[in-house]
Input
Amino acid sequence: MSTFDVSRGSTPTTGRRRAVGRSATGDAPNRRNTELLMLAFALAIPMLAYANVGLAMDGSLPVGMLKFGLGMAVLALAAHLAVRRFAPYADPLLLPLATLLNGLGVVMIWRLDKAGKLLRLNFPAAGNQLMWSGLGVAMFIGVVILLKDHRILQRYTYISMVVALVLLAAPAFFPSRPEDYGAKIWIRFGSFSIQPGEFAKIILTVFFAGFLMVKKDALALASRKFMGLYLPRGRDLGPIVVVWLLSILILVFETDLGTSFLFFGLFVVMLYVATERTSWIVFGLTMSLGGAAVVASAEPHVKTRINAWLDPMAAFGPKPPSQSSEQIGQTLMSLGSGGTVGTGLGQGRSWLIQFAAKSDFILGSFGEELGLTGLMALFMIYGLVVQRGLRTSLAARDPFGKLLAVGLSSAFALQVFVVAGGVTGLIPLTGMTMPFLAQGGSSVVANWALIAILMKISDTARRPAVEPAAAIPEPAGPGRLPAAGPGAPDESRGATS
Output
């Protein structure tokens, strides 16, 4: 009587057979060698920039150039080996792009350290930034190794919601740093401080992805029309609206409006992707403008930033307003002095060194010394990171992976837009930091974790599925007949004459 082996799928086998399937690691093209080549290129550019700064400012190669190069190379190689072993089919460009941005950020911070030392305006930060970069790469490696499958995160949808809210509320209840230019967003533990909102954006994205994956059909179909907009039932949308409102209230209370804009934009984008309703874009813009108007009228810090955005040069007039701010005007003058090709690395006038040039306004420092051309190159690198993330979303085979990848990519893109828009005067200044470029340990570590999750999703999406096993009959031995093939008569019932 025939027996069926279903351990490798639904392919029936007759008699005793050996099932052979395609290897999941041997046939699909492995792109790790491409990644290694791109990593070498990504390390060479910061090294050349480092040498350029030393030659421009001191007339000789920097003394610590070899140490910087070896440090970045060790971090990049460790990350590459982890990906090669635990995520061999991951996207080959994400790691080199992140390494390039991180390296350029450390170089610019070191350049500003040198100028600040000459002018006695600030403390060195490049060493700390390199240390945080090492912790970020360690976080990257940990995620790549420990996160066996991104779909595991779906199990913790509502736990993610609670953890994200705790992180957002923590600066209001734990010992914090003095408010940074109106924002209370840090937690201090002795001499150590972190910015929990950077990690909350990733965790909240996990919650949005898990919740919308389950509720997307109800949100898209079970709706009613109100003022031309199709709205879902309150019982379906209630939890996510509550989480969004609480996060906005916490962030407004802490006056970290940049992060609140980021979360709101992320909420709208993921809701639109999940439901495919363009009405959510209109609905989201309406809520955004209305909320901004209300907050601006009630919160002096927000009003100050809007006034500085409307008239960035007011602080330089003969009678500057009492709550005027100089940083936007300084940034615009710095960008203007850079022109099209920039003054050259290490040759800028350092207008911003005395005020957050290494963190909030590091994009202005790049614009002055690399010019519009250099800024466009940086934006292209950021655009490639977002494009690879969205490509991963399209390739993902499961709905949770699709939503998570598009959410993480959107969060990254929105943060770049909010920072770049604030620095260039396109939107009011928010106080967020540029991913990987700006000084800040929490931002670097969180963004390395974000890249790691995207790479795990892309590894699952690119990994080839095991083909159905091919049944190979065992060779006939002495006194043994070959196993019958498909369609052969079953002799166990006897022969008919």
